[in-house]
Every structure is written in structure tokens, then in C-alpha cells.
Amino acid sequence: MKRKIAIAATLLFTLVTSSVSADPSKNVVIDGQTVLFDQKPIVTRGVTMVQFTPIFNKLGITSSWDQKKKQVTARKNGTKIVLTVGSKNAYINGKRISLEVSPVVIEGKVFVPLRLISESTGAKLIVRDHGNTIEITSTVYNSEPEISSSVVTPTPTPTPTQQSSENPTASTATDEQIETYLNSKYSKLRIDEDSYDVKLTTLTSSSGFSIGIHMNDMNQISTIIKAPRNNLSYIFKLTKDLAKDLYEKYNKEDFSVYIYLSFDAPIYPEPFNPENITSNTDGTYHLKQPLYLARYNYLEEGASFYAIDLDDNDEQILFYEAGL
After folding, report:
1. pLDDT at 139
2. Do 265 and 248 meet the contact criterion of CB atoms below 8 Å apart?
3. Cβ atoms 287, 276 nearer than 8 A
4. Disulfide check for 257: which of 35, 64, 294, 303 has CB 3.0–4.6 Å away?
């Protein structure tokens, strides 16, 4: 069984790292000087993403990195920008801005949206050569930085009226309320020294209640693919607190937990099951590949854990069982 998991893990990791590629022809020029990157810029959903350190240095932006929060804080001439890996919420001088694409970590490097960083600090950005060259010109700081139309300022959320739904009971809680609660408490999952930044989704269907745990950090995906080979209880230890909380708070007695690889690829990720690939409007592709399935049954006081076949998602390899 371990051998099957090892083969699947090795294959999947190879496919992941080959499917997310940089744009080798895209050049970024700031004030007439080409910016040198350790890793080339990438394009996700039409948004150019770049390593933040070289860009910040060229634009004269000071920055700090909070490893625990996975957060970049940038400052220039009174403008403060806060970006968080995996979050589409950015903050410019305390004002929340919705991003089209969230910052991401690829091979240890943090990638951020180029246009947002440039224009929010007063620089001008022009795309030339059919999109292959991006020219940025620094300008005198403006106290009201220009924000690109590609960055959507969300409509303020109305203050909710006082209702009992603020703390719903097990019988009245909706999927959306459960999802909001889980993301507020379990957006970072930990086991031993490993930590995962995740987004959680919920779904009630004809087959029952299920939770999706979505990951898009390549380093973290590499870890979770490899770890169960040497520790078959790894997925159980990673999800058991979440599952217990779901059972005790919302009386969910029998449910499934899926762990997904979820990211956008500039080229069609051909080795993966076509059922898990959707097309984005900008010509890129979104992959939602299930990696593992955990079935929790508190009525029978047991849980079972499966590796999901890459080609046939209906084929699930049982590799661990635990009592509850």
C-alpha cells in the first residue's frame, strides 16, 4: 500500500511542478532598467505575478515579511501596502482592496500582483510588445495613489441586523455559516513542524455533507504529497481537530473531508483528469485535483483515509484507519 501511495505521490508532484510554468518571454523594465528575477514572472488569470523583493528594491519600496502570518508589508512615501499569501484581500493605507489573484509562494519565492504594487505607489505601468514587455516609470508620490481598474474595491458589507444566526445552532446552521466558521478557525492547519495555508469549502449533496480543503502553495503541496509515505496517520492527525469540532459544534456525525490541489496553470495540465480542469476567461486553466479523502463516522466511532487515483477519481486507495 505504501508503494502505491509513493508512486502516486511521485507522479503527482512531477505533474504539479511541470504544470505551473513561468512566462519566459515577459520582461519587466523599471525606469529604463530591466529587472532581474530568480524566477520569471508568471501570468495567472491575466494578472502578471512577480517576485516581490526585486520589484520593491527597484521601486525604492521598503518591505518586511511575517513568516507566521505569511504576510508582506510594503511602505513608500507614506503609503502602506499589506498583502497576505493565499488571500485576495489587500490593504492600502488601511483600506481593503479585493485582488483578482492572491499572492502565492512558488519554490520558496513570494509572488505578488505587479500592477497593484506599481500603481499603488504612484508609478505608471505600460504594456508593450504584445504583452511581452512591461514598462514601469516611477513618478512623484501622490497622496491619493491611483488604483488600477483591475483591482476591485468591494461594496461595503451592510451591518447585519441582530439575529440569532450570528451563533447558529447545529440544526439551523447553513453550509455558508459552517464554512465561514471553519475558515475563521482552521485557515492554517498544522501537524508537528508542518503548516498549511488552506481555504475550506462546504457542500451538502445527495451523497451527504463534505468539506473541501484547498491548497495552492507548491511547497506545502509537495510536503503533503510526500508525508503520508512515511507516516500513514498524517492526514488523520492533520484533520482530526477540525472533524471533532464539526461533530461537537454542528452535530455532523457522518461526513467526508477532501484535500485538493487547487491552482491556475498557464498551459493545459494535460496529465491530469480532464474532469478536474476548467478553462478561465483569460486562456489559463484551473485545476482542482483531489489528493486525499477522509471519511469520519462518529456513529460507528471510526475514520478511514484514502489516496485518490490521479486518472480515476472514483478509485480510492485505503491506507489508514483510526478509532474516534
Report:
1. 61
2. no
3. yes
4. 294
pTM metric for this prediction: 0.53
Pick from 197, 235, 192, 242: which is nearest to 67 by CA? 197
Crossing angle of helices 218-230 and 234-250, rounded to 10°: 100
The gap between the terminal CA atoms of the chain, to the nearest Å, is 23
Tell me what pLDDT residue 146 has: 47
Task: Return the amino acid letter for 114.
Answer: L
* Share of residues in the chain with pLDDT > 90 (%): 32
| Cβ partners under 8 Å of residue 106, min gap 6 | 20, 39, 42, 218
pLDDT digits (tens, 9 = 90+) for 226-253: 888 889 999 999 999 999 999 999 999 9
Phi, psi (rounded to 5 degrees) for 148 = -60, 150
Place of cell 440544526: 171
Cα–Cα distance, 177 to 166 (Å, whole number)? 9
d(CA 95, CA 162): 26
Cα gap 139→141, rounded to integer Å: 6
Reported confidence tier of residue 182, pLDDT bands at 50, 70, 90: very high
Helix axes 234-250, 175-186, angle to 10 degrees: 130
pLDDT tens-digit series, residues 61-115? 898 888 888 899 999 888 999 999 888 899 999 999 888 888 888 777 888 888 8
pLDDT tens per residue, range 132-143? 788 888 764 344
Give the separation between CA 204 and CA 315, rounded to whole angstroms: 22
- The grid cell for 249 is 459544534
